[in-house]
Structures are given as structure tokens and as C-alpha cells.
């Protein structure tokens, strides 16, 4: 069954953010001017994204939907695809009948992919598991899974990011079996790719320190049109500036 926006019921979770509870009669309804952000909740760090969104204070009312079905997806104005395991997320999306609806969603609405989510939004992937990897596409880059190595090679580094609130304050980039951007290749008929953050080559762990600062591998956050990608995990920090950025730069410009 499809829910119209006027059918959505919510319960308040404080400071302007609401959690969507379709089955809670008596709770406030979603207004046409409210914003509904979905978080793909098949596997991975979706609860952490939900907590970050709930801490945002916005002028417009924000509702969060944990997306597990096509009906959930149809409620959303935008979507976050969390980190986790991209092969597993794609497999679960196929089993739930969400793979094609997600591909259609990506063509029409803002989507932010973190880590595994970034892999799913890429045009092509290297180092995929045996049997291949299904992608959603949406951002014109090539990416490599586990590009910095295995779990033990995970690292944290301070990122300086223009465009975030308080840009002088560095953001802790948490890289866990993170993918590496291999190539940015938007064609002239596509929106240009805008690099949002690069690894500071002078602060990198020793094994990674040989990168040239303009190497595509240093790109860890980027935008193309209304799509946004981070190869690290902002949702595992206590800092919701990337969540604020996604809402301000991608979600609100596309909303009515
Ligand atoms: N932290 C993560 O999301 C890891 C991504 C994982 N290496 C994958 O291939 O999907």
C-alpha cells in the first residue's frame, strides 16, 4: 500500500526533528512544507545517521524514515545510504525489491552515500567481491572497495572542509575499510563534480603519505548535482556538520 504524504504520522523526538511512525494515530501529520529524509536501513550504520539528523535544528520540520520497503522509499524527499557492507546492502536491496526503485530514486532525488553508500552511488567499482557488485550509480566516479586496506588499516584524520559551518574547525574523518576514489569523470552533459574534502597528505599515516595532493585518491567528499558522497563516516562522530551540509545544500534546494 502506498502512503500519501498526508497519511504520514509522526512522533516528536525533540528539537525540530521527528521520527516517522506510520502506525501511531494521534501523532502530528507531515505538512507539505516539511522535509522527509529516508535512511536506507537494510544493514550498517543507519541508527547513527538517524541520531545525527535528530540533533539538527532546522527552520523546516524534518521527518526521518528508516527505509526497508518500496513504500517507505516512496515517502522520502531524499535518502542517506549508510556505511556497512556494500555487497550485503545491494543483495538485501535486491531481495526486498528495492534495487530498481532505488536506481529510479537516485535519478530523481538527492542522495548521500557514506562509505559503503558511496560505493553504491559510484558508476563503477574495483576490488568487488567474487560474483560482482550491484551499483545504483548516480555519481560519475570510479571507486575501489577497501582501497586503503583491511580493517586494521582503518584510520582517523582531521579534515579541513570549506562549506561546513565553522570551516576553521577540523572535522574528524573516520575511515573504516574505506573506499578510494580512483577517477572523477563527469561528461560535459552531466553536472560537474565538486570536490568538498581531500585528505591532508601531510597528516596521513606513513603508509599512505606518498600521495600527491591532487591525486583523485585524496578526494574523500564530493558532490555532483544534488548527490553527495563521503568515503568516511561523519555519523560516527559527535559532529553533525556534514548532516547539516547535506540538508542545506542538497535536500532543501530540491524540496518544494
Ligand atoms: N565502512 C564501510 O562502509 C566499509 C565499506 C566496505 N568495505 C564495503 O565494501 O562495502
UniProtKB/TrEMBL annotation:
SUPFAM superfamilies: Class I glutamine amidotransferase-like. InterPro entries: Class_I_gatase-like, PdxT/SNO, PdxT/SNO_CS. NCBIfam families: PLP_synth_Pdx2. GO terms for cellular component: cytosol; glutaminase complex. GO terms for biological process: pyridoxal phosphate biosynthetic process; pyridoxine metabolic process. Its EC number is 3.5.1.2. Pfam families: SNO. It is an enzyme of class 3 (hydrolase). GO terms for molecular function: glutaminase activity; lyase activity. Belongs to the glutaminase PdxT/SNO family. Coiled coil: none annotated. The keyword RNA-binding does not apply. This is glutaminase. L-glutamine binds at residues 84-86, 145, 176-177. Gene3D superfamilies: 3.40.50.880. The active site is at residues 115, 233, 235. The lineage of its organism: Eukaryota, Fungi, Dikarya, Basidiomycota, Agaricomycotina. It catalyses: L-glutamine + H2O = L-glutamate + NH4(+). Keywords: Glutamine amidotransferase, Hydrolase, Lyase.
